[in-house]
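Pilot study result, target chain (756 residues):
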Amino acid sequence: MLAFLAIYTVLLVFFRPNLLFSLTTTAGGDTGAHHYPAQYLIQELLPNFRLTGWAPGWYAGMPMLTFYFPFPFLLIAILDWFIPYLIAFKIVTVLGVFALPATAYALGRLWRVRRPFPVLAAVFALAFLLMETYSIYGANILSTLAGEFGYMLSFSLVLLFLGTVYRGMEKPGLNMLFVLNCLILMALVLSHIVTTIVLVCLAPGLLLVNRRWRSLGYLAAVAAVGFCLSAFWSLPFASHLEWTAHMAWNQLDSIKDPLPTALLPAAGLGLIGMAYAVARRERKLLPLAWFTLATVVLFWALPDGRLWNARVLPFFYVSIHLWAAYGAAWLVRPFMVMMHDLFSLRGATARRVYVPVVAVVIGAIVIITSTTAAGWIKWNYSGYEGKTNWAQYNEINQFLNTLTPGRVMVEHGSKLDEFGTPRAFEIIPYWTDLDTMEGTLMEASFTAPFHFINQAELSKEASHAIIGVDYPSGIDVPKGITHLQLMNIPYLLTFSEEVTGDVMADFRAELLATFGDYHVFRISGCTGYVEVMQNEPVRLRVEQSEWRDLAVEWYRSDLALDTPVVWDNGEEALQQYGWVTPDQVADPPVTPIETEGGVTNEFLENEGLSFDTTAIGKPHYVNISYFPNWHVRGAEGPYLLSPSLMMVIPTEGHVTLYYGRTVVNTVGQTLEVLAWLLLLGITVWRVVLWRRRRRLAGAVEESVPPLGVESGDEALDQDLGYSVREYYATRVGTEFGEEEAAADETEEPGEETPRV
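Predicted structure:
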């Protein structure tokens, strides 16, 4: 108890309650841009009984929470029913941090490792949280403040799951523990996919202790049901992954990456813990040994690609801290000797004060050394409103909200951090009725690579955020404005002298307002979300995985933009158009379309677009990002059009595009419903059995004859050597197939305290 008091006192010293419970809009890193997904879930998706959908506010439209993780945002929405949204958001962003010491303790208890390891695991989890050697990999406080609060929550749940499923594997069965394990697995999957992938590698280590086919079957059953519970999200995620911005990560390959200098003290103590475990033949820590080995192998084995191996390192780091906790448990004996020599404390007393002393010492060390975390916490949770430039930021957003709805392009640069985060204007849809082109969930958008090309052309400090894209070498405002026109982006916000001067010199840009260094322009030539093509598109028949690089080549070419390229996936309606090879994409032929038809009555909704056209049979440019869930009535299509947008060929005068379901969505939702029905059935069955046991146990107690006031049941119990009530209750329970409760052997009998 004293150790936990020390742990959470330290956390509250950092996460000051006056900041956490203040009504300010959380800023800082990616966290400050997560308000739009949270707001969209609360206002648009949940009222329609959905957790995923289409959001027009980022990247010319994107699938919201389809490739990102809905569970943390769902928690925000649930809390929003009871407390103000601003506080609900803050609580969920720190939930994983405050949960980790408790789940580390639960892991030690559920694995039945002798005291004081479970409490020391919680103490060393605190030390892990306050590591400052990295700020983006996940699972420490700095990463959480940078925006990885979903990873942090899922990471904490992984430790809890490894403990609860271990207990379930000891005595497999369809009981309430099975239900709990399935629900925990669902929650951690829906909180972050990287932690789920690592968990798949860690879970087999539990079989080193429970080496039975029934245990393997139990683990497989939990995995299957947990997968089905999340299938509404995980199946579309897996099947549509090619429609995201593929990040070509270059893996870390230095020996210093998994072993930074700051980790060496914990690693040294961890080696003592490993040696102590080997000497004591501590089989219960075999899963932890697997934990450490599996993360090391995974770190070095991951190839370049979508999954960055740095994301595995937090699991390795926490395993080292857990070994350090076991090493610290061995040091209790020298501590007892020292306490006796210095203060004449008895061994039992010294043992009781050991863990609180360790907790206080580690807490004091991290408070003194973790200066970065304290500063970041204040910066984040004082909110946008707590920044010196809040008035200017608020004034810009209020002005934008007076404009006709449309998309906003914002120059990128570190100067934006004066408002609370470089991503401050990514939440334009949160503050206003306008959309913005950039959003923090960049990997979830097929259009993101082309936005960052625009950004490179229109920014002095471009981010080049999508790795593996061929970006322009420097500012190119004329081409950037051409791309804004192509993607129907009528507003541009700049602040650097170089970009602002070049934009003012371009006749297509009109200055609307100035706020200090910030300038808002209107871009002419943005004709709307639907337009009849002036030139016939050309077909390109390639693998979908090849499309992006070829589309980038088309997008950056000075000769190609007049001729759109459509992806030919064998559709009959496209065979009327000419085709090009990949070598011709940068300079396709131009074939004008003769038509006097046009588009009227364009009506845009969050998940739909309708319009009237007189150009029936002619290809129409739809300026919304392509995704397989889009369907159309009154036209052929929609088809993928360069660079990442849509094309339809009207067959009627009125056309409606709508965001619907695919077969994968239907299958996933069906599996989810079946899994919930299974868990509901198990729960009802277990409740019925529990009530029957209580009823029968009560009947047995009433049937036991009184044995006298003076002697009572205790006298007979003493004579017989067992309890009469326990005998009857056990017998009745056995007759009705009830399982005997498993004895909790969390703590092994302690060794006799040595005399000192």
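One observation from the pilot: Residues 707-722, 727-756 have pLDDT under 50 and may be disordered. A full batch analysis is planned for the follow-on phase.
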